[in-house]
Specification:
Elements: E1 3-4, H1 7-27, E2 33-38, H2 43-59, E3 62-67, H3 74-86, E4 92-95, H4 105-111, H5 123-130, H6 139-150, E5 159-163, H7 170-177, E6 187-191, H8 198-202, E7 207-210, E8 228-231, E9 235-239, E10 242-246, H9 251-254, E11 260-261, H10 268-288
The chain binds nicotinamide-adenine-dinucleotide.
The site of nicotinamide-adenine-dinucleotide has 25 residues, from α10.
């Protein structure tokens, strides 16, 4: 039988733990604060930011939302980020990507104080991650590590194939999984759009992480009955005249065939959101020096 790895349930537990941590901060007179900064107001970005603000509200984190006019000069964004960097009530800052074309994305990420960079995309923090000493783990890879640990999937000595080499999922996950750490010590292969024979790699993996943004890329041909599949993909497709959400794995084909799989929705997605809240209380703990237990 295939184990369905329930990200919704684990994310719920983490949110409860974060809410307890927030209560402990409150009793010391501190409210952890997360600022979201939105410049390019496309509908998907607005939805993401709204979800993050709702998540904050649910656990008692002070959500501060800042909008910068999409036509404003780059400096206007950097000024707002600087103000948040200097604000003691703001412990975490997230600049929603994408930014408008006239803004240098890397410079926007670099403008965030590394100590408040709960997304983990400031180049200094990327460097620390690559060196095996992450300050903040990017939320999606972090969520995947927690999911695997909770599901009892051992990474030490395992062959993990990560499909996708993006800076937000594939690359940081590969770095985290190869660390000398209890939730690392894996042998990792990164596959991408130019990989010659994807199935040859994924079929010999203990764990396949599908993060390509290609609907149902991973089917029975790409796995074995021993494989654990972590499906990061979120793809909207038309099915029977209706718009529906599918992952990068063919869930119907793999359920009942592979050893374990994360569903879409209800797998990696809720974990990404929960780990942002976790990183915010982690940031607050470091900045205040308060020894609050984290989930
Ligand atoms: P991206 O487009 O930045 O990167 C996709 C990667 O997949 C690229 O490195 C590319 O080389 C590789 N790729 C594309 N086609 C491939 C193929 N046929 N075979 C092998 N590799 C291929 O995407 P991203 O931002 O990393 O996101 C990937 C997917 O994960 C998307 O569906 C995105 O919506 C989803 N996502 C989900 C979460 C979550 O929390 N669940 C978070 C981030 C991204």
């Amino acid at each position: 039988m295939t184990q369905i790895i329930d990200g919704e349930a684990l994310a719920g537990e983490i949110r409860e733990g974060v809410a307890d941590a927030v209560a402990a901060f409150e009793s010391e007179g501190v409210t952890p604060g997360l600022a979201t900064v939105l410049m390019e107001a496309d509908p998907a970005s607005e939805t993401y930011v709204n979800m993050k603000q709702r998540d904050c509200e649910e656990v008692g984190i002070d959500g501060i939302h800042v909008e910068v006019d999409a036509d404003a000069p780059e400096a206007a964004l950097f000024d707002r980020i600087d103000e948040l960097n200097d604000d003691d009530g703001v412990h975490g800052i997230l600049v929603q990507m994408p930014v408008p074309d006239h803004v240098d994305e890397r410079a926007a990420q670099a403008a965030v104080d590394p100590a408040k960079d709960v997304d983990g995309f400031n180049p200094e923090n990327v460097g620390r991650l690559v060196a095996g000493e992450p300050r903040f783990r990017p939320c999606t890879p972090f969520g995947i590590q927690r999911l695997l640990a909770d599901a009892g999937v051992e990474t030490a000595g395992a062959d993990v194939v990560v499909v996708g080499r993006s800076n937000i999922v594939g690359r940081p996950l590969a770095n985290l999984l190869t660390r000398r750490a209890d939730d690392g010590n894996a042998t990792v292969t990164i596959c991408h759009s130019k990989t010659a024979d994807l199935a040859a790699h994924t079929r010999r993996a203990d764990v396949v992480v599908a993060a390509a943004g290609v609907p149902e890329l991973i089917g029975r041909e790409e796995v074995t009955p021993e494989t654990t599949v972590v499906d990061v993909g979120i793809n909207r497709v038309e099915r029977d005249g209706e718009s529906t959400l599918v992952g990068d794995a063919d869930f119907e084909a793999l359920d009942g065939y592979v050893d374990a799989i994360t569903p879409v929705p209800g797998g990696v997605g809720p974990m990404t959101r929960a780990m942002l809240l976790y990183n915010t209380v982690l940031a607050a703990r470091r900045q205040t020096g308060l020894d609050v237990p984290l989930p």
